């Protein structure tokens, strides 16, 4: 059997561990051949491949990013995209495709399997941790660790200058990174996309902290929005899956805080730092297990399924189920951390 592998969407720590796990087990135990597709769905769309065997995956476990490259290419919008992918897979004699990606990348895989009969196995990838069918996605733990360290460091400079520091973290629709890093880093305010925030209330919390002679830290997810406004957009442009580019809520909020309270406020946007660099031990462990179980699903002919973490077990769920809805922060969970606000 010949197996194709691709990584789509935004890069995140742990992608190489998935590739390594699938290739090592597939070659050593099942004698499969592998082919890597470059830059997400662009690879099978344009038949852009790279050799993928055990020599290619040696030493990649601690490396961030992906050796296969990634993109947000949407083949469903390309001219004759589906036919080109099917023809190119047949030309390369690829019998099955392991698709490593988030909501959009896996959504394409689900349609390719369910509507066009392409043998796909999915692996969940998003640092936002917002896929509902799995307890955790790899990359999330690394992102939280990086954000927490940044918050820890910002406490000292905030206290030295007695200024407000607003930390903007990733999280388009779900505030998991903001919630986890904000709580772990001792933030005084945490703002997430699931709960619209009252700027006046934020300013009250900030003022309260200053009365206690303490410089506050505000953590805000990029998709968070005020009660009387919308999420802040970078430039209004859309990617190939129709998503707007978010950026700027941290700067906007810092300006509002400074204008309303008279206290100096500064912004730190962590951006791509959160998903760059070496993966954490947990993400290497989880990503490796996902790779091992993905190739097992290929062996079993269990296509149209995605590997997922449930408790400590790796299970298989329909890809369509995994992409049907996002996993967002429960209001009760968010309310738990409210005791630390202000």
From TrEMBL:
The keyword Transferase applies. Residues 2-298 form the Phosphofructokinase domain. Substrate binds at residues 126-128, 163, 170-172, 222, 266, 272-275. Signal peptide: none annotated. Mg(2+) binds at residue 103. Keywords: Cytoplasm, Glycolysis, Kinase, Magnesium, Metal-binding, Transferase. The record marks 125 as: Important for catalytic activity. Its EC number is 2.7.1.90. The keyword Iron-sulfur does not apply. Non-allosteric. GO terms for biological process: canonical glycolysis; fructose 1,6-bisphosphate metabolic process; fructose 6-phosphate metabolic process. Pathway: Carbohydrate degradation; glycolysis; D-glyceraldehyde 3-phosphate and glycerone phosphate from D-glucose: step 3/4. Diphosphate binds at residue 10. Its main location: cytoplasm. Its cofactor is Mg(2+). The active site is at 128 (proton acceptor). It catalyses: beta-D-fructose 6-phosphate + diphosphate = beta-D-fructose 1,6-bisphosphate + phosphate + H(+). GO terms for molecular function: 6-phosphofructokinase activity; AMP binding; ATP binding; diphosphate-fructose-6-phosphate 1-phosphotransferase activity; fructose-6-phosphate binding; identical protein binding; metal ion binding; monosaccharide binding. Gene3D superfamilies: 3.40.50.450, Phosphofructokinase domain. Catalyzes the phosphorylation of D-fructose 6-phosphate, the first committing step of glycolysis. Uses inorganic phosphate (PPi) as phosphoryl donor instead of ATP like common ATP-dependent phosphofructokinases (ATP-PFKs), which renders the reaction reversible, and can thus function both in glycolysis and gluconeogenesis. Consistently, PPi-PFK can replace the enzymes of both the forward (ATP-PFK) and reverse (fructose-bisphosphatase (FBPase)) reactions. Homodimer or homotetramer. Belongs to the phosphofructokinase type A (PFKA) family. Mixed-substrate PFK group III subfamily. This is Pyrophosphate--fructose 6-phosphate 1-phosphotransferase.
């Amino acid at each position: 059997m010949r197996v194709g592998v691709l990584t789509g969407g935004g890069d995140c720590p742990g992608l190489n561990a998935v590739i390594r796990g699938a290739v090592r087990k597939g070659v050593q135990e099942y004698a499969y051949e592998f082919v890597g597709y470059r830059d997400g769905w662009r690879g099978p769309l344009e038949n852009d491949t790279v050799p993928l065997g055990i020599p290619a995956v040696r030493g990649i476990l601690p490396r961030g990013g992906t050796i296969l490259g990634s993109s947000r290419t949407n083949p469903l919008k390309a001219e004759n995209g589906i036919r080109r992918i099917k023809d190119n897979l047949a030309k390369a004699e690829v019998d099955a495709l392991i698709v490593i990606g988030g909501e959009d990348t896996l959504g394409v895989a689900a349609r390719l399997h369910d509507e066009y009969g392409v043998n796909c196995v999915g692996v969940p990838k998003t640092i936002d941790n917002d896929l509902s069918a799995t307890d955790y996605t790899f990359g999330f733990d690394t992102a939280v660790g990086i954000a927490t360290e940044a918050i820890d460091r910002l406490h000292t400079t905030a206290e030295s200058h007695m200024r407000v520091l607003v930390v903007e973290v990733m999280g388009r629709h779900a505030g998991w990174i903001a919630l986890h890093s904000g709580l772990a880093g001792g933030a005084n305010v945490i703002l997430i996309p699931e709960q619209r925030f009252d700027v006046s209330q934020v300013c009250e919390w900030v003022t309260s902290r200053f009365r206690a002679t303490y410089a506050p830290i505000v953590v805000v997810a990029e998709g968070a929005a005020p009660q009387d406004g919308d999420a802040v957009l970078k430039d209004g442009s859309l990617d190939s899956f129709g998503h707007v580019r978010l950026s700027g809520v941290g700067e906007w909020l810092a300006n509002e805080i400074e204008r309303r309270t008279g206290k100096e406020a500064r912004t730190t946007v962590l951006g791509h730092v959160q998903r760059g660099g070496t993966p954490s031990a947990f993400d290497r462990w989880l990503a490796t297990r996902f790779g091992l179980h993905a190739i097992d699903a290929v062996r079993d002919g269990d296509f149209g399924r995605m590997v997922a973490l449930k408790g400590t077990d790796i299970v298989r769920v329909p890809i369509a189920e995994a992409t049907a809805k996002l996993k967002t922060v429960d209001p009760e969970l968010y309310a738990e951390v409210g005791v630390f606000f202000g």
